[in-house]
Structure formats: C-alpha cells, structure tokens
Amino acid sequence: MNAFPRWARVLVGAFGIFVGIASLWTVFAERRAANERQRVLAILAEDFRRRDPALQAPVADGSAVVWEGRAFRRGDRVRIAKWSGTFKPEETGAAGEVQADEGHVGVVIGGEERKSTDRMAPNEPIQIVRVRWLPQKWKESDRDHWLDLPQFEATIHVSYLEVIR
Predict the structure, then answer these.
(1) How large is the average pLDDT for residues 126-153?
(2) Are residues 32 and 79 in the same domain?
(3) 164, pLDDT greater than 80
(4) How many domains does the chain have?
(5) Same domain for 66 and 111?
(6) What is residue 62's predicted lDDT score, i.e. its pLDDT?
(7) Which of 69, 102, 115, 154 has the greatest number of C-beta atoms within 10 Å?
(8) Strands 105-112 and 146-149
(9) Contact 55, 64 (CB under 8 A)
C-alpha cells in the first residue's frame, strides 16, 4: 500500500516536469544572452581595430609573438582560455586586483619583453603581449563582487590566451 494518494503523486510529478521545463528554458535564455554578448564584443573589437591607427601599422615580421606554434598578431582578438592570475590596480584603475579568468576578451597591441630577471635567458623569445581589454565585467580578487571596468591595457603571457576569429 502506498503512503501517498494517487493525486499527490500526480501533483508532485507535474511539479517536477514544470521545474525541468523551466530549467531548460533558463539554460536556453542564458545561452542566447551569452551568444548576444559575444556578438556585441566581436563588433566592438572589430570597430576598435578599425579606428586605432596603431593597430593598422604593419609589424616587421608580420606577428607580435609566436609561441608554441601559435602566432599572436597585432590586432588579433583574443580570449583568456584559462585563469592566469590577477590584473593589478595600476593596470585596471580599479581599487583592488581583478581576476584574469577565462572568457575575457581583448585585442593584442603587441609583444613585450619580460622584465629582466636572473632566471631569464639572454635570447629568450617574447612570450608576453600587451592586450587592450574591452569594457566588461571583472571579478574582484578578495571579494565575491563584480566590477564593470572600462577598457584598459595590461600584459599577459600568451600561453593563457587563444585567438578568436
């Protein structure tokens, strides 16, 4: 004998189906919003590339940095592929450090040599690029708080980046 009457089981089942449909709709809506944000960022990056004369100037060898078989050229749109640390307040203009986590989009300005250290080989290839990060949300390091930051420039090692077309 069942402890719950048939009408209660039907009601709980219908509620479960409703919750499942609502969840699927939410996933669909969030995915659509993410695609729209990506489209807008692509338009902004392209507009930025067209308007910035410094990005139009040719680079002597055609690329800013070649690392592990991947080329990062001036004007390439890039995305952080994996967490790479933090950007400092001097770079971002924010009150504290912000997380350089995956998904953030910017445009490569050019390669930069690493600041001299004892470990650095004398002829070490350029591995660092300066990126102009587009206006977007960034997570503060010490808090569970997000900031809308305007565009800023900061350097990052190319192993954390991927070129997006």
Answers:
(1) 89
(2) no
(3) yes
(4) 2
(5) yes
(6) 40
(7) 154
(8) unpaired
(9) no
Q: Where are the alpha helices (DSSP H) in 52-160?
A: 53-56, 89-92
- Which single residue is written with the structure tokens 């977007």? 136
Q: Please give the DSSP secondary-structure letter assigned to residue 165.
A: -
- In a shared domain, residues 26 and 100: no
The percent of residues in the chain predicted with pLDDT above 90, rounded, is 41
- Please tell me whether residues 100 and 131 are part of one structural domain: yes
Single residue among 51, 70, 86 that ends a domain in this structure: 51
Instruction: Please name the residue that has the structure tokens 């048939």.
Output: 6
Tokens 């445009």 correspond to 107
Q: Do 135 and 37 meet the contact criterion of CB atoms below 8 Å apart?
A: no
Give the residue numbers spanning the domain of 46. 1-51
Residue with tokens 């300066």: 130
What are 63-122's pLDDT values in tens digits?
Answer: 567 777 788 888 889 999 998 899 999 999 888 899 998 999 999 988 887 766 656 566
Any idea what DSSP says for residue 113?
Answer: P
The model's pLDDT over 9-30, given as tens digits with 9 standing for 90+, comes to 999 999 999 999 999 999 999 9
Please report the beta strands in 6-135, taking only residues with DSSP state E, as ranges in sequence order.
65-67, 70-72, 77-80, 86-87, 98-99, 105-112, 128-133
The residue type found at 141 is S
